[in-house]
Amino acid sequence: MPRTTDGDGTPVPQRLLAAATRLFAEQGYDRTSVQEIVEAAGVTKGALYHYFGSKDDLLHEVYARVLRLQQERLDAFADADAPVEERLRRAAADVVVTTIDNLDDASIFFRSMHHLGPEKLKQVRSERRRYHERFRALVEEGQKKGVFSTATPADLVVDYHFGSVHHLSTWYRPDGPLAPQQVADHLADLLLRALRP
């Protein structure tokens, strides 16, 4: 049985994911070999296959861990006891910050999603749809209550915001003029302004 941690206590799955994320970001998914990943993580191929089964599984997990985090946070915002405009603004800003915090993961995924097998691709699309539907439900709630304008369909509002989020990896730079929270606040404000009645 493979060791579950290394000398500093880092679990092997985390080491493999960290190595894969770095290599996929630097070289691209298709140009990164399993051997390079296990060497960078300091483990054997047996350990990788014990935890992940394939390079495809690693790619899936790179994105899935971010999506799980974002879904948990969105659910907490959506379920909070606060006005709908406040809940939507928090959710809209949070997806920006968590995407920037995991920029390599997001850029790897959008560049390499087509490498996933059909089942994994279907699963990821389903998970993303669940997230978008929960986000859209906040927009629809505000529209039904008359807090938000109904001039633009909720689906289009959601697509508009997530179009911005999905392109962060193409232009955002950590050493640029705006901190993650500033970008998040600007994009959330744009969304809320677009929804004003």
TrEMBL record:
Keywords: DNA-binding, Repressor, Transcription, Transcription regulation. Residues 33-52 bind DNA. InterPro entries: DNA-bd_HTH_TetR-type_CS, Homeodomain-like_sf, HTH-type_TetR-like_transc_reg, HTH_TetR, KstR2_TetR_C, Tet_transcr_reg_TetR-rel_C_sf. One of its GO terms (molecular function) is DNA-binding transcription factor activity. It holds the Pfam family TetR_C_24. GO terms for biological process: negative regulation of DNA-templated transcription. It comes from the Bacteria. Residues 10-70 form the HTH tetR-type domain. Gene3D superfamilies: Homeodomain-like, Tetracycline Repressor, domain 2. PANTHER family: HTH-TYPE TRANSCRIPTIONAL REGULATOR RUTR, HTH-TYPE TRANSCRIPTIONAL REPRESSOR KSTR2. This is TetR/AcrR family transcriptional regulator.
